[in-house]
Amino acid sequence: MNSRGARTPAEAGPGPAVASRAIPSAHVALLDRDGVVVSVNRAWRHFGLSNGGSATTGLGRNYLEVCEHAATHGERIGADVAALVRAALDGLDTGKRVTYRCGLGQDQRRFSVYAVPLPGRHRGALVVHVDVTLERLVEVITGADDA
Q: Cβ(34)–Cβ(40) under 8 Å?
């Protein structure tokens, strides 16, 4: 602790930037307490550029609103993801993940998304999308397919 009783950076543990670099292949967005995307990692930016968007895709947008918009337009997964994110913004780590399809035809992939609460004065959440296409393919090939 410093002279004012606050935790030093070393005592506070790794920050969101360190956390997003710890999982370099995952697409990670840092949300503020209201659900607005304030930062994204390199993998998120690359995915945006590779899929017709930009490196700043999502920055400044409210993640919950995007999920809710998808849900009202027939994407049930949007409501599930919004619930995960809302829980994380409320400080709850549910340990749940939502798996969804992304892309069309041969380019279709599967992702698993989860949200991690970031407590403290500048609370928010990390939203992490992990490509699980290979794992899903192995499940199908080995007969462990549950869907």
A: no
Using alpha carbons, select from 62, 133, 122 the residue that is nearest to residue 100.
Answer: 133
d(CA 107, CA 7): 47
Give dist(CA 118, CA 18) in Å, integer: 13
pLDDT digits (tens, 9 = 90+) for 55-95: 888 899 999 999 999 999 999 999 999 999 999 999 999 99
Q: How far apart are CA 93 and CA 125, in angstroms?
A: 10
Which tokens hold the place of 134? 């290979």
Helices (H), the chain: 9-12, 16-22, 42-50, 63-72, 76-89, 133-142
Residues 6+ apart with CB under 8 A from 130: 23, 25, 26, 27, 111, 112, 113
77-86 own/partner pairs: CB under 8 Å, 24+ apart: 81/113, 84/113, 84/114, 84/115, 85/31, 85/35, 85/115, 85/125, 85/127, 86/35
**Sole residue written with tokens 């049930």:** 76
21 or 63: whose pLDDT is higher? 63
